Amino acid sequence: MYPILKVENLIKKYGNKIVLSGISFELYPSDILGIIGPNGAGKSTLLYVLLGVVSPDSGKIYYFGEDFLKNRNQILYKVSFASQYISLPYSLTIEENLKVFAHLYEILEVDKKIDELLNLFRLFNKKKTLTRTLSSGEMMRLNLARAFLNDPAILLLDEPTAGLDPEYIKYIRDLFKEFSQKRKLSIILTSHQLGELEKIITKVLLLKEGKTLAYGDLTELFQKFRVSTLEELYFKVFV
Amino acid sequence: MRLSIFRPKRIWGIVLRHLYLLKHSISRWIDLLYWPTVDLLLWGFITLYLQRGFYQEGKWIYQFLGALIFWNILIRAQQGLAVGFLEDIWARNLLHIFISPLTIFEYIAGLFIYSLFKAFVASILMAFLAFFVFNFKIWIQGMDVFLLTLCLIIFAWSIGLLTMAFVLIFGQEAEILAWALALLFLPFSAVFYPVEVLPESFQSIAKIVPTSYIFETFRKILLEGYTPYIFIGKAYFLVFWYFLLSVGIFLIAFNFAKKTGKITKIGE
């Protein structure tokens, strides 16, 4: 089986500060990779480099076996992203916002797709509501609905459950698992909620000051570091 | 017991809060110093023009109305681009845009079309108002008006792209340029007065500002009844270089923002 995403020796500096130092990893269909590290570890920068909004200084990124820097626009049809820290225009309704992005991804049968996603993320009754009236949890669900518009093969998520209440955290977690198992969706996510992360991820990448401190299958890392939870692993590696 | 309504120290605290803000903000300094300068120069030159007796010519009101309509086309087109970009920043939506398959050229093309729409709506409204209220028909000049308008719009796009480039380099602090940058060209553009009113040093600058030729042409058409095509040619020649330069600067700024990661921070 070939990796759906292969990252080789990624280096990124801001001035003299090294933000990513030789990051390498692979992602296969259905993998859910958690990127963990303290603030300033380079997690968000890594996601932005993987999305092509920040250019790396060196290293290679291959999606579906193709060089990302050479085929960025084609590849982005099958890659998506959602973050708690990025919103959608407040003055547009939920439906209008999704329609704009449906055009950017050249989605066919836009109305049907939007209805399907609004049902999936339990926002259908707010379809005509202005985005500015949404709570932070609803906003995150809208971001997730937007991220699923293009039926991504790889989904990158920055703190996807921040702002959600426990009921929705469980719902979204189950949804990610289902998409990962049934539709072979691969997910990369960052989160500080280690307990939540442990319930969903299959692989983990531990970053500190841009360097990989540990990477591999979750169960293998648990055995290697002789720990039984992600929190224990975190403290063993970082403290 | 101390009088609690007006305590000088507390009032000074409020003044300090704004002085500190001013200390760290170039855009607020621009706001403080730039607008009075532009206003003074603009109205000073208009007064000089009127003082020379031009107001006695019967068409001077049409000249002002026409100039106002043309200037508004430029401003609407420029802001359609620059403010359109800022709207995505204010909405913290820029990252969503740039992680989609959309290319930067497609994004700019979308903003160009929107800016055309804004300029069209504003110009139609102003042209009809000028006709119904002042009996001024700007459209009777036909093709020449179209040529001038097109040139103005391309220049407006150049200024819009430069504004966007500055925002990408300096962050949201530079957003005031969306309103200020076009006005930098206003005193030299001879919008409401001919170039000859300007001091010599200003006239030299006006020679490299395409809008000065556009507004001079408009005045010649209106007051003297002929179209100096050489002026239109000069305007297009200059606008071509301005546009090329602004596209180049914008692309450099865009790549700079991607390289430094600024693109992910703008609007935070």
From TrEMBL, chain A:
Entry-linked InterPro entries: AAA+_ATPase, ABC_transporter-like_ATP-bd, ABC_transporter-like_CS, ABC_transporter_ATP-binding, P-loop_NTPase
Native source species: Thermodesulfobacterium geofontis
Record field: transmembrane: none
Gene3D superfamilies noted in UniProt: P-loop containing nucleotide triphosphate hydrolases
Database matches in SUPFAM superfamilies: P-loop containing nucleoside triphosphate hydrolases
Domain ABC transporter, first and last residues per copy: 5-234
Pfam families for the chain: ABC_tran
Signal peptide positions (record): none
Name the record gives this protein: ABC transporter ATP-binding protein
Family of this protein: Belongs to the ABC transporter superfamily.
GO MF: ATP binding; ATP hydrolysis activity
Highest taxon in the source lineage: Bacteria
Keywords: ATP-binding, Nodulation, Nucleotide-binding, Transport
UniProtKB/TrEMBL annotation, chain B:
Predominant localisation class: membrane
Homology family: Belongs to the ABC-2 integral membrane protein family.
Location in the cell: Cell membrane; Membrane
Protein name: Transport permease protein
Pfam family, one: ABC2_membrane
Record flagged with keyword Transport: yes
Originating species: Thermodesulfobacterium geofontis
Keyword terms of this UniProt record: Cell membrane, Membrane, Transmembrane, Transmembrane helix, Transport
